[in-house]
Amino acid sequence: MKYARNVVNEVLRLAPPVHGFFREAIQDITYAGFTIPKGWKVYWSVSSTHKDPKYFPSPEKFDPTRFEGNGPEPFTFIPFGGGPRMCPGNEYARQLLLVFMYHSVRKYRWEKLIPNEKINFDYGPAAPVNGLPIKLYPHSDIKQ
Ligand code: HEM
Question: What does the mean pLDDT of the chain come to?
Answer without folding.
Answer: 92
